Every structure is written in structure tokens, then in C-alpha cells.
Fold this sequence. Notes:
It is a single chain. The chain is an alpha/beta fold. Helices cover 34% and strands 25% of the residues. The protein is built from eight helices and eight strands. It has helices spanning 8-22, 51-58, 100-113, 115-120, 128-133, 152-162, 173-176, 186-190; strands spanning 3-5, 28-35, 38-46, 64-67, 72-80, 83-86, 91-97, 178-183. It is elongated and about 70 Å long.
Amino acid sequence: MTTKYFTCAETAKLIRQSLKEAFSGAKFSVRSSAYSGGASISVSWTDGPNPAQVESITRGFKAAYFDGSIDYQGSIHHMMDGQQVHFGADYITTSRHYSDAAIQRAIDYLSRRYAGNFKESRVSKPTVEQFRSGELYRVQLEGLHWDGSSSVQTMIHAALDKHTDGLKVNASATAGKKFITHDDGYSRQCGAGFSAVSVDAD
């Protein structure tokens, strides 16, 4: 069976269409980049669906995986419309941006939920400007932040990452046409055990 090869730009077009079908009304920037030795696609958007929801669509188009334990890049194979295909992007990254309104909603929610912790720590309600500047990385609350790495800033980030404007991801006809058949198996044999598909236990 012959394999159909999609360029990085063609793969980006498929991802753009899949996201449009899955998240009607949301606007995405999908940019492809080809370079010596590989290619990648970056997806960015503001507010709307959360990163996990978007990645449920985009990760199925990746043509490669990376096993850092052995410094190895392996291949992922797909089928689409009954034909073997090879997508043109080794990696797909996602980046969600936030409007001031979304940040304010997260601050309002956390200020209500942890009102006692803010009061006990004598910390006033954060502002959007403080979050944007990164100032809140230095602010910790009694009873919540004790490990030196968590803070009011990271707490707001976590709330933003979880929030979505819709709990349901619409079915994408374009994304539904393809599926992962297998990967090259090298990570399972020699590395950390990465698998692009479910593998039955021995």
C-alpha cells in the first residue's frame, strides 16, 4: 500500500479545519514551520477552550515523538480515508492566551474561594496588572503555599488553564477521518516505553 505524504502546510490546513469543526466560534492561529531536519506547527488562541480540549484534536496529527531518556525521535504512523498517510509536522505546540476579562474572572473566583487564606495572610485581592507583570509569583498564602514554588500567580494560572467556555468538544469530521496505526516501537524496546497506541500488558 502506498503512503500519502502531507506537507507541513497541508497538515496545518487539516488541523485548522479540525479545530474549526470542534470549536465553532473560536479563532485559532495555526502556523507551520519547516526547517533543516524537521517541521513543526504552532497553534495559539485567546480564551475559549482549554489546552486539554485543543490538544485532544491536535495531538492526533503529530508525525513524531521524542524519548528524552535515550535522546531519540521516533515516527508515528496514521491512516486516513483507508490509506496510509504521513503527516508533515514532527511536533505540534499549543499556546493559549488570556484576555483581561478572563484573568479577572479567575481572580474573582479564587478571591471568593480562598477569602480566609487571603485574610489570614493579609494579602489584598490581586489585580490583572499584578498578574501580567508576574508580581504575584512572590505572593504566597498561609495554608496553601508552602513549597517555595507555588504562589498566587501559579494558582491563577491553574484556574485559567482549567477554565473553558464549553465543556463539550464537537465531533470533527476532518479529525475523525484519521487514526494512529502504530509507532516505530523503538522507545518500547530501548527507551522509556512510549507508545502512540494502546499496548496490551505482557
